[in-house]
Amino acid sequence: MPSTRLAPQILDKLDPDHATPAVGYLLSEENQDTGSVSVVGGGLVHRVAQFQNDGVTFATPPTLQEITRSWPDISDMSNAKPGTSRV
Question: How many angstroms separate the CA atoms of 50 and 42, rounded?
Fold first, then answer.
């Protein structure tokens, strides 16, 4: 038996039977969500999301000083919204 660091009461809840219904739903026609991330394990099913702010765009590679000056705007999450990909 492989060694593990998880407690037996946690391992017991990692049985695939706990995740299979969520996977079935995600694959079903009833599911209308796209581009979301769900975490399933240990009897818990929940959605997680990445959030982002508007950030700061630099026309050229920024210097350390420019990053330092801009850090309040870079890190301000007061108007955060769900993350998107620019790619």
Answer: 22
Whether residue 31 is contained in a domain is answered as yes
Q: Does the residue 18 lie in any domain?
A: yes
Residue 55 sits in which domain range? 51-82
The 3-state DSSP class for residue 30 equals coil
Give the DSSP per-residue string, 44-64.
EEEEE--EE------SSPPPH
Give yes or no: residues 13 and 36 share one domain. Answer: yes
pTM given for the model: 0.54
The string of pLDDT tens digits covering residues 16-63 is 888 899 999 999 999 998 888 898 887 889 999 889 999 999 999 999
Return the closest-CA partner of residue 21 out of 49, 42, 47, 40.
40
Same domain, 34 and 55: no
